[in-house]
User: Fold these one by one.
Assistant:
Number 1:
Amino acid sequence: MEKPKTPTWLIPTGVTLIVLSLLGIGAYQAFQNPKPPRILDTFGNQQIDTVDASGKPVTITNIHRVPNFSFLDQDGNIVNQETVEGKTYVADFFFTTCESICPVMSKEIMKLCKVLKADSSVVFISHTVDPETDSVPRLKSYAMAHQANPRQWHFVTGSKKELYEMARTGYFVTATEGDGGPDDFVHTQNFVLVDKYKQIRGYYDGTDSLEMGKLLKDIELLKAEYAWKDSQASN
């Protein structure tokens, strides 16, 4: 009995073998250097039009990073860039006597803290916009009322000028102008996601539970991005 012939379309040609080899190499490289599912945008960068050495017009990107800061938290400890070194953190602005958006924002952070309780790589920094009222003892009472772990959630105070400067030019949470004087006031529900490189990676409405779900997902995306960058550096 004659043996059935293999259909010609199943017989690999030289071109097919090359394509299959390239696909195999690509799959291996992807396995060796997996990329995160999505890279989050960065915010606050500036496009600057200038000229190069030859006089040719060029556009350069000035990468924004959150500037250095130093405030006191609810335990009287200094909170600065060293506090968040190598960590992802979420910044927001509130005041303890607020009866509108701030209680909702604080409750949302409480929920996030519970979800991320075992994750020491993520911290929260809530900046008061009313430092004249929100002393360290007052922040301590507010923190205790919200069951805040002081290693995870810092309520900070400092000079009004410095706090407002951070809100406007450090985190860009408001477009209003001001000098941090007696008549100046900042009130915003924006949460700011900052990566371990001090770059802003997202803004979220702190009064919206759906936005908080997105924030949690974006924190996980950042972890995947860190792992990918670390793997690239080691190769």
Note: The first helix runs from residue 14 to 32.
Number 2:
Amino acid sequence: MRLNDKEIKECLHSGKIVITPVPAEDKISGISVDLTLGGQFRVFKTHKLRQALDLGSSKEHIASMIEEITTSPIVPGNEGLSLPPGGFALGVTYERVKLAADIVGWLDGRSSLARLGLMVHATAHRIDPGWDGNIVLEFCNAGPLTLILREGMSIGALNFELLSSPCERPYNLRDNAKYKDQYGAVASRISADK
């Protein structure tokens, strides 16, 4: 069942959903909570992009390659981050989100930004039950203009579904959870499934 604004407020009050800082009343609409962009990004070094990343390689090799082709997390300051046409970068929500074991979140980009070509998540828009952390955003500029991303801008909307019962293995209790307690623009922690 998708939660409406009244139910979202009840979950925020009861602690089933925790968003820090607490969203203002006008940030909660019919079925979602507006989220804003944090100030940390990770971008790809364009001179390294001709390399191939073998997704069947060892976990160590993949991690080393990702570190080689991406910057350390950067905070661009007042000028924002310029994302050229075809550009890809990781960002992060300003808000930290924590979900109970019977709540799943879904992040949607803003329509007004999509109409400029900005995709806010490449494919990963599900926020698992038991999640606790900032949400990493996978920006792709599919439009014709360079877009400037600024800390504090409204970047997306998070909506929620109530599961019929709590998960047996929510994200925060999984031993293999790669992004547990993530803060900042965390790079991929992909590993080969062998």
Note: The chain has a mean pLDDT of 84.
